[in-house]
């Protein structure tokens, strides 16, 4: 079974084609990486899948069914650095979101442990590192016990420790059976956590398959840049 199927997906802003016929398939339980240079369409694709923007045309299937907004109740997402209240702690954030979503507060303890914030749950967010704030954002997404999680550039701006923690969290979530789509322009990070990848350039899918399939003579970076260079770097 597939978690997400996208076919011939377009998103136009006037004459600009942010998505220009995207095709991709995310299998159930896998970690799927979206790769591409800045402006390739990764964030736009995620926002369309999450119902934050309307596509111009194309088709989406979610959990094997034609796309319907009701299915988004089973999807967690973090597409920007989360908007948090600096003076509140993690516990207060999760309680507030649990009330808004009608989620049982008993799930909060488990979610905090899952993202490894249990020991600092009563520390004000203003004292959190950027990596800890990202993890709190993911904790909020996990409150709905999602089958599918969408993460846009979750290592952007993190130091090496934060990147390692985020990588470990993604592996933990995947190990628990959650399907994850994660975007990045950093091939090395994607290669370490993903089962398969889609390479987007200029709003189109130019590769989909295993990470190793990108390689040219064993060199992943060479294969990645060969794709980008073949379409002029993706600049419109």
From TrEMBL:
Q: Which residues form a coiled coil?
A: none
InterPro entries, A to Z: AAA+_ATPase, ABC_transporter-like_ATP-bd, P-loop_NTPase
Gene3D superfamilies under this entry? P-loop containing nucleotide triphosphate hydrolases
Q: Which UniProt keywords apply?
A: ATP-binding, Nucleotide-binding, Transport
Q: Report if keyword Nuclease is assigned.
A: no
GO MF terms held by the record = ATP binding
Q: Does the keyword ATP-binding feature in the UniProt annotation?
A: yes
All copies of domain ABC transporter, residue ranges: 4-227
- Would you identify the family this protein belongs to, as annotated? Belongs to the ABC transporter superfamily.
**Name of the molecule in the record:** ABC-2 type transport system ATP-binding protein
What taxonomic ancestry is recorded?
Bacteria, Bacillati, Actinomycetota, Actinomycetes, Pseudonocardiales
């Amino acid at each position: 079974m597939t978690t997400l199927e996208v076919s011939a997906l377009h998103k136009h802003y006037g004459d600009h084609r942010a998505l220009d016929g995207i095709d991709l398939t995310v299998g159930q339980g896998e970690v799927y990486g979206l790769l591409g240079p800045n402006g390739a369409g990764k964030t736009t694709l995620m926002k369309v899948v999450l119902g934050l923007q309307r596509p111009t045309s194309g088709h989406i299937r979610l959990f094997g069914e034609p796309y319907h907004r009701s299915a988004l109740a089973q999807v967690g997402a973090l597409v920007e650095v989360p908007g948090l209240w600096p003076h509140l702690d993690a516990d207060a954030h999760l309680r507030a979101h649990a009330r808004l979503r009608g989620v049982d507060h008993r799930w909060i303890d488990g979610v905090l442990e899952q993202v490894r914030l249990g020991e600092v749950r009563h520390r004000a967010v203003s004292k959190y590192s950027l990596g800890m704030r990202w993890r709190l954002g993911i904790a909020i997404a996990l409150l709905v016990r999602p089958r599918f999680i969408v993460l846009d550039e979750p290592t952007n701006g993190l130091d090496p420790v934060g990147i390692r923690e985020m990588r470990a969290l993604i592996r933990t979530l995947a190990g628990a059976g959650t399907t994850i789509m994660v975007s990045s322009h950093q091939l090395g990070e994607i290669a370490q956590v993903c089962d398969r990848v889609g390479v987007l350039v200029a709003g189109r899918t130019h590769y989909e398959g295993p990470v190793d399939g990108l390689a040219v003579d064993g060199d992943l970076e060479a294969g990645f840049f060969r794709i980008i260079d073949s379409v002029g770097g993706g600049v419109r």
